């Protein structure tokens, strides 16, 4: 029988953190050895070999840096990891070559499929826009999933030789056309009653294709969290995206 993995959760009182605590508690091959909230000293992470980090974009880099320095593998669901932050983390990991950090902008398997399908469809459509919807307590916009989808779609368009999405808008003083990420329009809705939803809308002459994913409950993220916890120790260095663990 393989050894049980001791796991800590940082941000354990939050919406995602408490769902992760429950999922780890329920898993027969994992031991929950530490729960950490805002202001709790992380120390040796309660003896964990893997920490699950689910806090805020402001807090996450310091928490992850602490885990890496302590030699603890880290599964990160917190969004807001800019290229600069990723670079700093990679530089730190050079000095800790045995430590693995897996940053997953989205743990839901369906969301990963949505991104993969959108990437495949991108070269066939002149128009594409992304509409993400989340609960109104989310502090950052757009979602990490929307930003990553936009980057993947933009890269697929570029390698197919597609230029800018067609758009004759000349005046938009209120930003009604949304944000642009790598040239792809992204719209963020914040609505009470929703959890995490995304639509990738494609258009070509005379037709439309919409790829949509809905997370109705945070339990949808937990199989991905647990798969990452089990795998991260065997993946030294930085991995961005849970899709690297799955054969999509
Ligand atoms: P949340 O309910 O606001 O929970 C965040 C928790 O982190 C709170 O309990 C907060 O405590 C705690 N916290 C803040 N700073 C901390 C620190 N320095 N050390 C330890 N704990 C700290 O947010 P959530 O909905 O759970 O989301 C958490 C993160 O996961 C967000 O970035 C969200 O976008 C992301 N997310 C990712 C996925 C995915 O699939 N990757 C899915 C959903 C959400 P206080 O309230 O006391 O400050």
Automatic annotation (TrEMBL):
Keyword Chaperone: no
Pathway: Amino-acid biosynthesis; L-lysine biosynthesis via DAP pathway; (S)-tetrahydrodipicolinate from L-aspartate: step 4/4
Major localization class: cytoplasm
Domain (Dihydrodipicolinate reductase C-terminal): residue spans on this chain: 110-246
GO molecular function: 4-hydroxy-tetrahydrodipicolinate reductase; NAD binding; NADP binding; oxidoreductase activity, acting on CH or CH2 groups, NAD or NADP as acceptor
Superkingdom as given in the UniProt entry: Bacteria
EC number per UniProt: 1.17.1.8
Active-site residues annotated for this sequence: 134, 138
Subunit and interaction comment: Homotetramer.
Function: Catalyzes the conversion of 4-hydroxy-tetrahydrodipicolinate (HTPA) to tetrahydrodipicolinate.
Name this polypeptide is given: 4-hydroxy-tetrahydrodipicolinate reductase
Organism: Allobranchiibius huperziae
């Amino acid at each position: 029988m393989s050894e049980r993995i001791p796991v800590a959760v940082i941000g354990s009182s939050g919406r995602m953190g408490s769902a992760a605590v429950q999922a780890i508690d329920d898993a027969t091959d994992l031991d929950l050895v530490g729960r950490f909230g805002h202001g709790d000293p992380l120390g040796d992470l309660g003896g964990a070999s893997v920490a699950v980090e689910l806090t805020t974009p402001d807090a996450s880099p310091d928490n992850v840096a602490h885990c890496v320095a302590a030699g603890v593998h880290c599964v990160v669901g917190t969004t807001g990891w800019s290229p600069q932050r990723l670079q700093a983390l990679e530089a730190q990991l050079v000095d800790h070559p045995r430590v693995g950090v897996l940053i997953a902008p989205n743990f839901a398997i369906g969301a990963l499929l949505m991104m993969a399908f959108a990437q495949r469809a991108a070269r066939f459509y002149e128009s594409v826009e992304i509409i993400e919807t989340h609960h109104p307590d989310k502090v950052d916009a757009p979602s990490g999933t929307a930003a990553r989808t936009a980057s993947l779609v933009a890269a697929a368009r570029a390698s197919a030789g597609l230029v800018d999405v067609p758009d004759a808008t000349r005046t938009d003083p209120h930003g009604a056309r949304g944000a642009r990420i790598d040239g792809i329009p992204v719209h963020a809705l914040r609505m009470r009653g929703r959890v995490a939803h995304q639509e990738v809308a494609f258009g070509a002459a005379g037709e439309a294709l919409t790829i949509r994913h809905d997370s109705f409950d945070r339990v949808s993220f937990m199989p991905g969290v647990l798969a990452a916890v089990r795998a991260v120790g065997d993946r030294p260095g930085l991995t961005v995206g849970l899709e690297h663990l799955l054969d999509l």
